Amino acid sequence: MRVSHLFTKTLKDAPADEVSKNAQLLIRAGYVYKEMAGVYAYLPLGLRVLENIKQIVREEMNAIDSNELIMTTLQRKEVWEKTTRWSDDVVDVWFKTRLKDDTELGLGWSHEEPIVEMMKNYVHSYRDLPVSLYQLQTKMRNELRAKSGIMRGREFVMKDMYSFHATKEDLDAYYEKTIEAYKRVYDRLGIGDETYVTFASGGAFTKFSHEFQTICDAGEDIIYLHREKNIAINEEVIDEAVAELGINRNELEPIKTAETGNIFNFGSQKTDEMGLYYTDKDGKQQSLYIGSYGIGITRAMGVIAEKLSDEKGLVWPVAIAPYKVYLVSIGKVAEKADELYETLQKAGVTVLYDDRDERPGAKFADAELIGLPYRVTMSERLLAENKLEFTVRNSGQTELLTLDELLAKIA
User: Fold this and answer.
1) Which of 5, 140, 145, 378, CA to CA, is 20 to 30 A from 218?
2) In Å, how far from its chain's centre is CA 218?
3) pLDDT in the model for residue 203
């Protein structure tokens, strides 16, 4: 993509009312547009990052035999009343609306109840199990606080997955398989080394759930970490978890984190509440066991922007960057730069080509702000030497390479 054709505009300053670093940088670099507090539009660069994150998540969920679908945002009141979660006293983040015939509806903040209701049409026998389904969908939550940029939005993209099993043992096995899949996701996103499987409150259904907490100064959670044993505990369950696990609290280190995913083992309580059963091999009616598994797609993008940026701008990992290379042309080299642009694309390298009639300093500043993994610079001086300048964004390391050497590094 040529910068002259790209719908984007970098800004020297972020909006005065935006306090979060991730949103400040994403707005300045032309990735998002702020509609209002907690609500952002994703511009072409931002959408490419989101789609890359989605694809990593999609591949890992497919690898554990989950099927992708998409459900409706509009939610029927009576479905949620079966588990009391329609009540604002139980769930306080609902956005609610009405049809013209005065039917009250909600805008989906999660989909446990609707998917259980849907499965009444598809699960009848033990032969229909197990089933795992996931979606990548926009959720709506009427958050009281929305000051963390895209890390806590009132409208956000989430991967939510639900699995249905005939036995507790089968659910437990799939739950563990999902934990391993999530670890692979965070590794591929570039934050695996600082993301911990964390004991958290299980609510009404189970003693503990598990969160995936990423070390982040802008996060809203505190976890207690035992580095030697690789145990992490959310502050909200610290006393209970320490007793359960038999560890010394004095050995735990408090750390600021952001929750980037969570998984719940609901057992059979939710399906029992909603009347979803199956018939076993002996023709007897049995309860189903279900798990619920979430990853915040936009939140992960925000955490990565927050963690991996520097004083110059964003620093995207290769796997999710909107483009791999930022190509800068300096001076009267347009024809040769066009040729290089075509050569890189033919080699399968995604390129953002700064073909603007701008001073070099402005191009370099935008390259650093936008934060693509690599910058390649062509100039008259370099052409005379048959070289290209190659710069790695996250280290600043620069070297002069021939075209063949460049392709060997990045193609």
Assistant:
1) 140
2) 16
3) 59
